[in-house]
Amino acid sequence: MYLTSSSSHISFKALSFFDKIKFICILYLSVWMTSPFLAYGTIYRIFALLAIGLWVFLEFFEKRTVIFKPTSYILLLYIFLFYTMSVSYLADGVSILIRNIQFYLMLFYLLVYASYQRKSLNILRPIVYINIFLFTIWMLTTYIALLENGHASRYVIRSGEEAMELTKKGVGGFTFIYSLLIYIISVLALIKNRLRYKRLLNSITLFLIASVILAMLVVLKAEYSTAVLLMVLSVVFFLFYSDSIQKNIVLFFVMLLIFIALKFYMIDILKMLLPYAEGTNYSHKILDSISSIETGQATGTAEDRVERYIRSWNLFLEHPLVGVWSFRDIGKHSMILDTFAQFGFFGGVALLYILLKVPIELYKKASKSNKVFTITILFLIIALSSLNNVSMAYGFMFYIFYPVILYRLEHE
Known about the structure:
The chain has helices at 17-34, 42-59, 72-92, 94-99, 101-119, 125-148, 152-156, 161-168, 174-198, 203-222, 225-240, 245-273, 281-295, 300-318, 335-365, 371-387, 392-411. It is mainly α.
């Protein structure tokens, strides 16, 4: 059984006063990071910093504190942060530390996970349930806005009055859309568990089904092609993977046949889809894809993305040991590639270990019935870290939302 301990079922009511304060800190941080409504506002950010500071302060007094008794990945995290922050400050000044605040906030959740792993992840279950409810609200408000303006989620990431007005209406941007990928698979796992083992088709199950359908619609409507591709791949794998080797072989050959068909008829298929995408951001993606296939190289938005990946990769090859140090020259489009380019081989490997240690451990310790869930999330974590910039909300989704869902599945 995964993450068993003598205190594996500690409830919120049984917590001490200071543990309840820590719980409230994490609750606020999770809501602040995932709720579009709180994206802007100095007061919200001040409260977030106070919550982090208060949580860390109270963690000092824990008997088995991760501050003074760290696990291997937390110890490496300390070393990694000290080195990278020092190098960044020397190369680019204090401004780069402020710019990278989302990265540091993402890694903060590793501390939170390590702390509650020693007590019980069950303590954080109410936070996850509250976020499922809030996610559904923000998905609804985002979807309504996307029906009015298909580019609304893209406008949110721009600073300015328009972005602030959209977030006040509960419209999620880049971070929200990509966080939904982890959300979709996690909620699907809950639904699958409730239907398979409890055979419950009650109001809660129906709510979860409606929520995950809405999440898929939001990802499709937001028109982030990478997010759509990752969603389709992860959902198909999660739903159709089987314990039967024969069925998986059939699934593999079916996907292979689809790949071969797409390879030879992709241009015809894209041209057929083009009229249906007229007036949406997908029309530009389709035109870029057609041009890329015909010319044999990436063009348009895909060209810019690929160029940024290649830039970071080439910088790493030129400076493999210590990296270029400065943030200015790297591609700024891949958390992992950018780290290798900026801090060299050892910095990149350290980040990979820090990021993947927990999800790999969860995969190894999960029961057979939950293996496909854990490996699907592991795929998404690697993909999001490789293909996108840093997002502080990833920390909550990777190290709190997903592990707590898995903990619940393993202990039901």
